[in-house]
Amino acid sequence: MRKTFAIGIGGAAGQGVATPGDIFAKIFSRRGLHLNAYNAYQSIIRGGHTFLTIRTGPEKVTNMGDRLDLLIPLNQDAMDRHLGLLTDGAACLYNSDTIRPGMGAPGVQLCPLPVSNLADVTRNKVAQNTLAVGAGLSMTGIGFQALEQVLAEQFKKKGEAVVSENIGIARAGYDFATANFKPFGWPLPMTGNRYAVMSGNIAMAMGGAAAGVKFYCAYPMSPSTGVLHWMASHARKAGIMVRQVEDEIGVVNMAIGAAHAGVRSMCATSGGGFALMSEGLGLSAMMETPVVVIDCQRAGPSTGVPTKTEQGDLWQMLGAGFGDYPRAIAAPLDIGDCFKIIPEIFNIADRFQSPGIVLCDLLLSEGRLSVDPKDLDFGPRIDRGELITEASLASGVNGDGAYKRYKITESGISPRAIPGVPGHTHTAASDEHDEDGVLISDEFTNPTKRRAMMEKRMRKVGGIEAVVPPPVLWGPRDADVTLIGWGSTKGVIEEACEILTEQGISANQLQIRWLVPLHGDAILDILRHTRHTIIVENNYSGQFARYLRSETSFVPDGHIRKYDGEPFMPHHIVEAVKEQLGGKSKLSVPAHEILV
Amino acid sequence: MATAPAATNHVAMSDLKGKVDPDWCPGCGDFGVLAAVQKALVELQIPNHNVVTISGIGCSSNFPGFINTYGMHTLHGRALAVATGVKLANHELTVLVTGGDGDGFGIGGNHFVHGMRRNVDLLYIVMDNQIYGLTTGQTSPTSRLGMKTKSMPFGSVEAPVNPISLALAAGATFVARGFSAEQKHLTELIKQGIQHKGFSFLDVFSPCVTYNHDNTYQWFRPRVKKLEDETGYRPSDWMAAMEKSLLWGEEIPIGKFFERTDVPPLHGAEPVLDDGPLVHAGIRIPEDVTRAFVEELM
Description:
The structure holds two protein chains of two kinds.
Chain A: E1 5-13, H1 18-30, E2 34-40, E3 47-57, E4 70-73, H2 76-82, E5 91-95, E6 109-113, H3 115-118, H4 127-139, H5 144-154, H6 160-180, E7 196-199, H7 200-211, E8 213-218, H8 225-238, E9 241-244, H9 248-260, E10 264-269, H10 271-287, E11 292-297, H11 314-319, E12 328-330, H12 335-352, E13 356-361, H13 362-366, E14 368-371, E15 387-388, H14 390-394, E16 416-417, E17 427-429, H15 447-467, E18 473-474, E19 481-486, H16 490-502, E20 507-512, E21 514-516, H17 520-527, E22 533-537, H18 543-552, E23 558-561, H19 570-581, E24 587-588
Parallel strand pairs in A: 1-4, 4-5, 5-6, 8-9, 8-10, 10-11, 11-13, 12-13, 15-16, 19-20, 19-22, 22-23, 23-24
Antiparallel strand pairs in A: 1-3, 2-3, 2-14, 7-14, 12-21, 18-20
Chain B: H1 30-44, E1 51-55, E2 70-73, H2 79-89, E3 94-100, H3 101-107, H4 109-118, E4 122-128, H5 163-170, E5 174-179, H6 183-195, E6 199-205, H7 217-220, E7 224-226, H8 238-245, E8 252-259, H9 287-295
Parallel strand pairs in B: 1-2, 1-3, 3-4, 4-6, 5-6, 7-8
Antiparallel strand pairs in B: 5-8
Helix pairs in contact in B: 1-6, 3-4, 5-8
């Protein structure tokens, strides 16, 4: 089992949960440790309850895990909610001036910090947070110097006095813990690596920059807004035009306009905004103008639970827009993959002149992960497809005779001239049109031409399938159980497989990254040789299970689903697998024990 | 279809003739708008490959198919959003947006208001016939109070929108109204709208001879009065323009209501475009810049 250490910090929004979280994350990643952070919060600016989990360790950490080693409750509410989660060997650091501890389980160390004795609380409102960070570091066996450096960076803008005041407070917490609390049995190691800590939203935004996106627009909508924020703050350095638009209908159409004029163009939203975009997706496909749309799923339906995660938009993506048209839908497997998937899907969108959809979710969008900078390739392969520009025209490419924008070809792909290129004027229409762009929808509808154009566009479906690799099975071939997931559940299912194997149940994993094209035949080939299959997904109705069945007629032996807004933890899957292998159930809906 | 580069050639009316003839009803006001746009482009000598004509859906939105420029015939109400993207990706293009009153003031109302406040550099021509034509005659946002249509057979009880006042209030930097039967006047307004650096809004009375029997050529002719003929009218005076925009009935002003040139167009306000259009920018970001992006996260 992977050795990890997890910290939970809980408090009200506005109490400063994020800052200690950021400090810990920075210290861990600079120590060469991997980390995964997930913040459970609500749609409130002040108040409520937020709970940040940071899990770290020398090997890859892919999910929040099952165990908390250190709890830092910033108010009584957080103490009352979470102390019961701690087990033998864990500790709870709290402000003994304001918080009464509850009854910890045997072996749980309660660590009271006399905050007003250690710091001037009238001067520094977040002294308890800083003291707790100092104390926590001491208990994990990390030297004070690391904290001193991060604090200096954190408060640099506020001046030397603020820096030294905070370092002083942190030092007091550090020393108090050294003198009074028992350190953890596993001092956190150090490795020679250094990692970047990033959210999925930042990863997708940077992935866009790497892909050569020149136009990004959005309407703010949780949990996708982080993409807009990164794009907006880095736009001028990256040479990207970023616009905030009046609504998501405007967003997708503006993005299509920019793409049509010849640049790579991207936008992001969540389910509600995507619903407004669906007519635009069809426009992209009909005009054969490539655009990439990111959907960061949150718990629906309707406004739903804006700050909670779900994989509930799959059928919306599959059915977005009316009529049949080629599209590509990819679900990133982790935060690093959020970066990689953007250039990949742009190459497909550009080459096949069709919309590309990235199906992300809150868990990845707002979660944070340590990523090796070497895995952030800002020079990926770029395939703009058959594009006619003034430059390509000058080099003699595609310069022959009468131009037909929607020329019928074997691949279904027709060379695309962008506005401004002499000799290639044409109209791109949302109406059905002939090869030369002339409408066949109004005055002279023509069943033969309509059929030919429909078949031309749909031939691209086969082309897209040919360039996207089929999924592969991870783990031993003859395992007792095969867990099937898609997108963001990759890490937690992987860890559940490891735990099951340790407990004597061999498990393997089929994780789907490309939802369209699905490669149904390849999936069937894999699943034909399995013993017991269970589909794991973060929604109520088993959206992927229904999709897989519709494409392949495959019916799994069981399902594990969660739709309470919180992500899976490894033990949820492990226990459900055991329950199902024991024949007790075919559908498990694990309860989330952390009350947030 | 143009098969030879026209960049160095003289632009003639024949260069701008579309692949098909308009399918509008005989007598439709939109013919006059099409002719005026073609004349304006010839008079301004703008090569057709540097023009993008973008429309939504409706009778008048079939416009891009009837003129030989780059064209986009987009979704109902969305032409301005698409056009904003086109202009920002390549601001060297001349962007014309054409459509009807239902398309622009009804389903596209949100983009209309925001396009104007953004001062996107384009000319937006609304062929305003005060009726839904392609759906065979329903009330539009500019249909007069009391007008009987298939969707409001007992007469509209909803006040119409005033496009000129709305455009002035939303911050359009060029606001004008034309009449499709006044060719020379309309052509002049189109030329000015194309040359204006910013959002140019041109509402054109373009009578529907099939479904609107109230607002006909005969109804408009004695009523329209050119602002250009009025001594002392200054289009730089926003308050005067607003006051004029409220006139309706026996006397209806046409012409340039308002123009200001002191507001930069959207593409001129964004330093990202300082080095030229995005479409000509290199796809890769310099390595020192991307390295700094990653460093921030470490």
